[in-house]
User: What shape does this take?
Amino acid sequence: MRKPEKHILVIFGASGDLTYRKLVPSVFDLYYQNLLPEAFGVLGLGRTDLGHAAFREKMKEGIEKYAMTKPKSEEQLELFLEKLYYYAFNTKEEAEYAGFKGELESLNEKLQTGHNFIYYLATPPSMYPVIPAHLAKYDLHLSDQGFKRLIVEKPFGYDLESAQQLNHQLLESFREDQIYRIDHYLGKETVQNLLVTRFSNGIFEPLWNRNFVHHVEITSSEDIGVGSRGGYYEGSGALRDMVQNHLLLLASLVAMEPPAVIGADSMRNEIVKVLQSLRPIKEEEVEKYVIRGQYTASEIKGKKMPAYREEPGVAPKSRTETFVAMKFFIDNWRWAGVPFYIRTGKSLPTRVTEIVIHFKTTPHHLFAHDKNIMNRHNQLVIRIQPDEGVLLKFGMKVPGAGFNVQDVNMDFHYSELNNTYLPSAYERLLLDCMLGDATLYSRGDAVEAAWKFVDPILKAWKNRPCIKVHGYPAGTWGPEESDALVDDVKTWRYPCKNLAGDGEYCEL
Assistant: This one.
């Protein structure tokens, strides 16, 4: 794999948890694999007065805890830590950027990085428009001497209006091709493998349309509650936190047309086309197509689980949803009439993210004496996490007399690939940005298209308090009312934590 050009990775909010747990450990993983240029450095920024030595000591602890690879020796780790620097200043104050610019240029001179800078905003969302504007005031956005790139974490806005405003503010300081909106779901190996499964196999692509697919189901569940994140989650909820970005993105990858080439523009053009083809859910239709829930107290294996309203930072009468199930349609030639079902939630039975393609049943039931055959769909399950892999379910004859049929599994697990290193999502996405490849990053028009679809739902919940928030006991698969969404397909798939363990008793 080619190495990136020489550069400095500048992390705003470097004293925070994201840098400690994800960013610097991922950069170390790249260093361990010899994927970083010789002339390279990390400049951490924050209001906390750490200094180089204290910052390095803190990051050393983060690397030892969270890096995918472990240092071969203390010497290797120390050589990497020497590439880390820290500068303390108030990122809100425009005047203080003069000192920061001097520090950055001094480090550029020392490391000989050719004025190539990547700015990573590991900050609260309120700083997303502020920092780029201050950088532009001091000409730190100009690409006349080396490249300048800006990585922005989610959330990209709070609703359609704020997303449009944020995009407008970012584009006042940086060009669209300089902006990298990161969604760590796209960095997962199995998400990218979805594209390979579709477009490199002649057995799947001819069937990938309304003629053969009965429905598509996407589940992303967590087996824990909000915990200490109650204060943040109160202002977000499952629709903003998961559906607007991660799950609509997965649906777009399932539904997109083959791109002309695997490149940033071609890939992202096709994703935008899908998002623009989503059939709008009107405010008055929300109850018909969207179910929201909130977990209540329960007991699991003798352990009492608190209700969402009992979590720290949560309002006693909160109506914030911790579960969303939705039915929607994509109005284009390929998918006309095919329902898409998505489901996400906290405090569900297991942690799992997967995509299930349910194929139509055979048009003629030769084995109609087996009543289960009438409702049996072949399924292709693409597991994003955990137990990453692919599972194909189809009917086979049960040995013995007669023609009794049962489902069997043909499965592939990434864990079966010996000596294969699976990079973390942040590791993959950081390397792509260093290489200038925006294929796996979200574009501004895609973000706005997703918000345009979600916005009427948020408005309906705000304007019509009569729309219910259904309770569900922690540790169950959400409110029973969500089953009404899929009444035409009988039931949701209830996955185990092991990919091939469905259809039998499994420990959740």
The chain has a mean pLDDT of 88. The chain is about 30% helix and 20% strand.
